[in-house]
Amino acid sequence: MKKFLWTLPLAYMALIWTLSSFPADEFVALPDLSLDRIIKESLHLVEFGILYLLFALALYGNGQLTKKTSLLFAIIACLYGALDEIHQSFVPYRSATWIDLVKDVIGVTVAYYFVNRFYFLKKNKLEQKL
């Protein structure tokens, strides 16, 4: 059952790849173009943060969440963001920009910060009390 947790980030990566294979307005296009753009651009911050959190969940569920593995999978999530941007550069009506990659990395960094702040800091405090 614990190994099942690894299917979550892998399935999510497949979903990201599939959705980025379509034009940006393929599934949802809001009537207000500026609002549509703002929402879709801000999703970069969330999308890859979620990917890292799914990796962290899989690591935690399998007893493998350490500072080292957390950092490793944060880097993997960032690299997948870069790969996704390269992929989008070949998709008609999609774009790949450095600012999108920066937003992907910021999303991962924020999620990584919270995992490290709330998991490892509390874990260290508990260990010190014992």
From TrEMBL:
Residue stretches making up the VanZ-like domain: 35-115
Transmembrane residue ranges: 45-63, 70-90, 96-115
The keyword Translocase is assigned to this record: no
This protein's record includes keyword Transmembrane helix: yes
Keyword field: Membrane, Transmembrane, Transmembrane helix
InterPro entries according to UniProt: VanZ-like
One protein family per Pfam: VanZ
Protein name per Swiss-Prot or TrEMBL: VanZ family protein
Biological source species: Robertmurraya beringensis
